[in-house]
Amino acid sequence: MEALHEELPFDLDFHPSSPLVVTSLITGELCLFRYGPESQPERLFSVKAHKESCRAVRFVDSGKVILSGSADCSVLASDVESGKAIARLEDAHGNAINRLVCLTETTIATGDDEGCIKVWDTRKRSCCNSFEVHDDYISDMTYVADSNQILATSGDGTLSVNSLRRNKVRSRSEFSEDELLSLVVMKNGKKVVCGTPSGALLLYSWGYFKDCSDRFLGHTQSVDTMLKLDEETLVSGSSDGVIRLVGILPNRIIQPLAEHSEYPIEALAFSNDKKYLGSISHDKMLKLWDLEELLNGPQIVIGDEPAEAGSDNSDDDSDDDAMDVDLATASSKGSRSKKAGKGQSSSRPASDFFADL
């Protein structure tokens, strides 16, 4: 199943209970689709949500509301039925917002182009945590509920661990030669896997974040997005347009699952029941793949790519995974490339965004 956009999509998210998927576009638009097993996705609405590119989108409030973050520095809450704006936080950040993730039913986190992470409490209707930890854009974030911490990767080449309970940066990795573009937590919380522009996957052991414990050299091009399938395997989206199934410890490319197009894959997402895998790419296409068919179907062949690729320490899973050992913050060696379309700084208050939710 597939649906063509008029412009480049940046992000997508599936509804938590209904067969709906939302995408955000470089033009600032939000597009909502209804999908089914026997038909192509039906566009329910397309609305101009932001003045500049809409880089991040998530369903919240049990799927009643769509939250979006933009290069215009705003966060918008839109009604899922009509697409109409419910509430807008005009100046959530001083710089363009690049990532948005849901933490709990009442909290979200946003990350911007200058490395700032903010946490928003919908009950108190205000910013409750702020972390000025990175020197370049926030490329990805994930929430670890067990320890109440946000893990973030950045274009400055570092990984950070940010404690919501203590409102402090618990750890930051040393500078990597590559930008860190994506991350997933694997092996029951013992390993953090980060994607890079060179195609290498960096593996960090929990509690020992200063330097990676393993480098997996299986991808030929940039790993821009990843999803955890289970504790042993992940799904990666690469700039060569290929979606791959990847095993972690032992590290190997299990098989290419699909080729979205010859263009870079911008984002991946699972439907709420994990029946479908959604992908968006620079070909402006939203594609919905039957995940069972991808995993059990015939293996596709991508050039001369090997079925398995090695790493530095593919069988080494014996690290002592203590919690939060290295607490000092490492220095960065400089700024990397930014996402396009930076927003403007502003000092207007941002405390009443959730008043109407």
UniProtKB/TrEMBL annotation:
The keyword Nucleus belongs to this UniProt entry's keyword annotation: yes
Acidic residues bias spans: 313-324
InterPro entries: WD40/YVTN_repeat-like_dom_sf, WD40_repeat_CS, WD40_repeat_dom_sf, WD40_rpt, WDR55, WDR55/POC1
Domain of life: Eukaryota
WD repeats by residue range: 258-292
Keywords tagged on the record: Developmental protein, Nucleus, Repeat, WD repeat
Keyword presence, Nucleus: yes
Protein's recorded name: WD repeat-containing protein 55
Lineage of the species this protein comes from: Eukaryota, Viridiplantae, Streptophyta, Embryophyta, Tracheophyta
